[in-house]
């Protein structure tokens, strides 16, 4: 099963955050026709699969993840015809298209919710999760003390019917009740609609949360927060696998598609296999977040402190997931997505953009799994220099700011400094295509920030430069897809070497070929001594004069090499 060839195992993916990718009608908002314009670029980069974030009708509380009609395209993003044309043009040049399927919640402006909140006996009431408040010391409080991912409680009071509805994201995103078979049926119809239209599968948003603890009992976590971040109350609970199996049998199995669930930071490899295992998994793969925060950004307090990568931890995480899932389930390979800060600022070094960026690409994209590049990663886009709370757009940041009781200006400044390092708004800045006004994204002022360095860091500046990061990304994917190496890169075994070395990440891939990938993660020289490997060929490297003898090699800052070695 593992070795069975499938298009989605051999694909090279690219995530498009629609609102910020390319604006075709000059209203300052990225749109579907903007993607159509950029298909030749994606093709040139070597991409064969794109994931597009939500384009459905939405009041945009969470930039489209709050959907008020699953069957309509939001006019800000285009029309149904635009989607159809995009699918056709992408398919014509060998690019498959997956779209976000947001199953966990709707917008509060979805007609189901508008109806549901009218009365307790409304036909749609049971589409959502409702509970009575609790009386504590004579005062009414939320049904439980569970937190929401976007700050505050995961419950919101509905005054008219005097009950609380559950919302683990924003209060404008009420959670659907999957215990109700009607909800499951409705959502299966939604999935069928888009599959019948020709999409090649789904990235399933927040899939880990479809099952909820039946018992509304307070969390016994004791953090300083008023509401406890006890995500296990609504993450990865066994019942959700029953729901997903029903989706698989009724919908997914009837199409040659890929389904990728977002399971976040909480799932173990065992759970990932329950989701995406060959034997019984309802999905094809899952995105976990384990490798996304392997640095000190949660501890930094002031700008004089620098971001440091914890490579030992990162290596353990890679080792765990690459080995435990091998031959049991498939997996995506990605550094970061639209919910994270930019890779270059997080794990790279903006002063050495090419070297650190090419090292990171080498380290990740030669493991087994399906690569997913996040827009702008290929040119080394960095975090935005946020300085003021008004510069942020994310509803989660705004909620956290409002819920914080700052005792001094210093505390507030610290909040902004820390948020700037971690915020997902970094990933949502406008894609820089060229050095013209508005970065070639639009002729009008974009809805969000363009990075101040866009005149030098942009696609046009790197496209024809043989020494650019973008060109290096092209080479990575050319090599990964090339014969006779493809089967080893895609399906070969993985073995990490020098596991306790805190500076170097080195691994072997083996099947028809034997490949050794060596990366120096830092800005210092390091010696590596691996004389037992005899080099047959240098397949890729980010310095032009790479050594071919592996005894006591001095690796230069961020040096990365892919060798074919003798078996
Ligand atoms: C998406 C986020 C979104 C949330 C709610 C996720 O995990 O990736 O961008 O805010 O789900 O839909």
Sequence-ordered SSE layout with sheet pairings:
Blueprint: E1 13-16, H1 32-37, H2 39-45, E2 49-52, E3 56-57, E4 69-73, H3 80-92, E5 96-102, H4 111-116, E6 130-131, E7 134-136, E8 139-141, E9 155-158, E10 163-166, H5 181-197, E11 201-205, H6 239-250, E12 258-264, H7 269-276, E13 285-288, H8 311-325, E14 332-334, H9 343-346, H10 353-365, E15 370-374, H11 395-403, H12 409-422, H13 459-463, H14 469-481, H15 486-491, E16 493-497, E17 504-510, E18 514-520, E19 526-528, E20 535-541, E21 553-555, E22 560-565
Helix pairs in contact: 7-8, 10-14
This protein binds beta-D-glucopyranose.
Beta-D-glucopyranose binds next to loops.
Brief summary:
By secondary structure, the protein is of the alpha/beta class. It has helices spanning 32-37, 39-45, 80-92, 111-116, 181-197, 239-250, 269-276, 311-325, 343-346, 353-365, 395-403, 409-422, 459-463, 469-481, 486-491; strands at residues 13-16, 49-52, 56-57, 69-73, 96-102, 130-131, 134-136, 139-141, 155-158, 163-166, 201-205, 258-264, 285-288, 332-334, 370-374, 493-497, 504-510, 514-520, 526-528, 535-541, 553-555, 560-565.
Word description of this protein:
- This protein is α/β, with parallel strands linked by helices and 567 residues long.
- The protein has two domains: 10-104 and 181-220 and 231-307 and 334-340 and 369-474, TIM Barrel, CATH 3.20.20.80; 482-565, Sandwich (Immunoglobulin-like).
- Helix content is 26%, strand content 18%.
- It is built from 15 helices and 22 strands.
- The chain has helices at 32-37, 39-45, 80-92, 111-116, 181-197, 239-250, 269-276, 311-325, 343-346, 353-365, 395-403, 409-422, 459-463, 469-481, 486-491; strands spanning 13-16, 49-52, 56-57, 69-73, 96-102, 130-131, 134-136, 139-141, 155-158, 163-166, 201-205, 258-264, 285-288, 332-334, 370-374, 493-497, 504-510, 514-520, 526-528, 535-541, 553-555, 560-565.
- The strands form six sheets. Strands 13-12-11-5-2-1-15-14 form an eight-stranded parallel beta sheet, with helices on one face. The chain has a five-stranded antiparallel beta sheet with strand order 16-17-18-22-20. Strands 6-10-9 form a three-stranded antiparallel beta sheet, with no helix packed on it.
- The radius of gyration is 24 Å and the shape is globular.
- The protein binds beta-D-glucopyranose (BGC).
- Beta-D-glucopyranose is lined by residues 62, 65, 102, 169, 205-206, 262, 338-339.
């Amino acid at each position: 099963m593992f070795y069975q060839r499938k298009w989605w195992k051999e694909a090279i993916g690219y995530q498009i955050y629609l609102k910020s990718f390319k604006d075709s009608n000059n209203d300052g908002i990225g749109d579907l026709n903007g993607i159509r314009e950029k298909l030749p670029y994606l093709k040139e980069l070597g991409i064969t699969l794109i994931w597009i974030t939500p384009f459905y009708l939405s009041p945009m509380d969470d930039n489209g993840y709050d959907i008020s009609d699953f069957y309509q395209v939001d006019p800000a993003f285009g029309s149904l015809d635009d989607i159809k044309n995009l699918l056709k043009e992408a398919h014509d040049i060998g690019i498959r298209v997956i779209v976000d399927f947001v199953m966990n919640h709707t917008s509060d402006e979805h007609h189901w919710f508008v109806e549901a909140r009218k009365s307790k006996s409304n036909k749609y009431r049971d589409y959502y999760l409702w509970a009575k408040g609790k009386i504590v010391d004579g005062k009414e409080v939320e049904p439980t003390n569970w937190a929401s991912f976007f700050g505050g409680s995961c419950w919101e009071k509905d005054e008219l019917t005097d009950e609380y509805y559950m919302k683990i994201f924003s209060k404008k995103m009420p959670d659907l009740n999957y215990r109700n078979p009607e909800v499951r049926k409705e959502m299966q119809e939604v999935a069928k609609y888009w599959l019948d239209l020709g999409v090649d599968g789904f990235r399933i948003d927040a899939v880990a949360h479809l099952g909820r603890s039946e018992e509304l009992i307070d969390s016994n976590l004791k953090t300083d927060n008023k509401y406890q971040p006890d995500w296990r109350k609504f993450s990865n609970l066994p019942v959700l696998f029953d729901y997903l199996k029903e989706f698989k049998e009724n919908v997914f199995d009837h199409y040659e598609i890929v389904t990728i669930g977002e399971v976040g930071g909480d799932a173990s490899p065992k759970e990932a296999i329950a989701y995406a295992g060959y034997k019984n998994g309802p999905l094809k793969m899952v995105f976990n977040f384990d490798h996304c925060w392997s640095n000190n950004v949660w501890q930094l307090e002031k700008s004089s402190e620098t971001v440091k990568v914890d490579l030992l931890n990162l290596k353990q995480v890679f080792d765990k997931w690459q080995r435990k899932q091998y031959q049991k389930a498939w997996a995506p390979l990605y550094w970061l997505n639209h919910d994270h800060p930019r890779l270059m600022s997080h794990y790279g070094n903006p002063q050495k953009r090419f070297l650190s960026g090419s090292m990171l690409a080498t380290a990740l994209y030669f493991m087994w799994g399906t690569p997913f590049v996040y827009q702008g990663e290929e040119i080394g886009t960095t975090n935005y220099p946020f300085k003021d709370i008004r510069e942020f757009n994310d509803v989660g940041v705004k909620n956290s700011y409002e819920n914080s009781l700052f005792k001094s200006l210093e505390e507030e400044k610290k909040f902004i400094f820390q948020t700037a390092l971690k915020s997902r708004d970094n990933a949502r800045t406008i894609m820089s295509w060229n050095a013209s006004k508005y970065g070639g994204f639009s002729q009008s002022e974009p809805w969000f920030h363009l990075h101040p360095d866009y005149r030098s860091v942009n696609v046009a500046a790197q496209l024809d430069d043989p020494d650019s990061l973008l060109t290096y990304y092209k080479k990575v994917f050319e090599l990964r897809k090339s014969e006779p190496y493809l089967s080893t890169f895609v399906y070969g075994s993985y073995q990490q070497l020098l596991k306790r070395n805190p500076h170097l990440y080195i691994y072997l891939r083996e099947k028809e070929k034997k490949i050794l990938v060596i990366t120096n993660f830092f800005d210092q020289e390091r010696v590596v001594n691996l004389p037992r490997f005899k080099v047959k060929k240098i397949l890729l490297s980010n310095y032009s004069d790479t050594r071919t003898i592996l005894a006591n090699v001095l690796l230069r800052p961020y040096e990365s090499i892919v060798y074919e070695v003798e078996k």
